[in-house]
Amino acid sequence: MLLERLLEGLRATSTTELVSVGAGVVYGVLAVRQDRRCWLFGGLSSAILAWLAAQARLPMQAVLQLVYVAMAVYGWRHWAGDAGAAPPIGTWPLRRHVAIAVGLTLSTWLLAPLVGGWTAAAWPRLDTATMLASLLATWMTARVRLENWLYWIVIDSVSAFLYARQGLSFVALLYAAYLVIAVFGWVEWRGRWRRQLATAAATST
Fold first, then answer.
1. DSSP characters over the chain
2. What angle do CA 27, 32, 38 make, to 5 degrees?
3. What is the residue range of 158's domain?
4. CB–CB of 165/5 below 8 Å?
5. How many CB atoms lie within 10 A of CB 157?
6. Is the whole model's pTM more than 0.90, yes or no?
């Protein structure tokens, strides 16, 4: 059933959706490379996705995409280091991630009924949960935190499902591509982070 809807949606894909997908893929690839220009493509993709999500009755996703546009501006400014290079990769302790999981669960439990009552949201709980988690993960990306990729692996999986169910097949494929990119991003950034630690240790001796 889901596959049939996906194929039907692919046949009805608009040029606007294709542009958003293309810009989004470029964003993901450049983000893995820590190339500052990723934020330009990310902002463009998110602006288009905000409109598409609103049309697909995913209001919280629409709001999320608008916030992404603002975060793209922040990311562009924050990554403006020497020669446009991103700052060093950092990490957060496990206890912070546990606190985040608890906070996201409680926030979703409180907000989802309001979203469902105030809007025509098709999936109020998943819509709200992915919005909140994505805001955090975007902030982590802009702050160059290694674990952002682990959050994106989960978020992209859920988002691909949501958009596929609502008929935005190419957007669903975009999030499937993001999922693959997130896996590569985790591997690439973890390698760079380990090299940072090794360099710092060698310098201090």
1. -HHHHHHHHHHT--HHHHHHHHHHHHHHHHHHTTBTTHHHHHHHHHHHHHHHHHHTT-HHHHHHHHHHHHHHHHHHHHT--GGGBPPPPB---HHHHHHHHHHHHHHHHHHHHHHHHHS--SSHHHHHHHHHHHHHHHHHHHTTBTTHHHHHHHHHHHHHHHHHHTT-HHHHHHHHHHHHHHHHHHHHHHHHHHHHHHHHHHHH-
2. 30
3. 2-204
4. yes
5. 15
6. no
> Per the structure, how many domains does the chain have?
1
**Could you report the per-residue pLDDT of 27-76, keeping only the tens digit for each?**
889 989 888 899 999 999 999 988 888 887 777 678 878 888 998 998 88
**What's the distance, Cα to Cα, between the start and end of the chain in Å?**
61
For the record, the structure tokens of 89 come out as 């990769």
Q: What single letter denotes the amino acid at residue 156?
A: D
Q: CA-CA distance, 167 to 67, in Å (whole number)?
A: 23
148 contact partners, CB below 8 Å, separation of at least 6: 137, 140, 141
pLDDT (0 to 100) of residue 87: 79
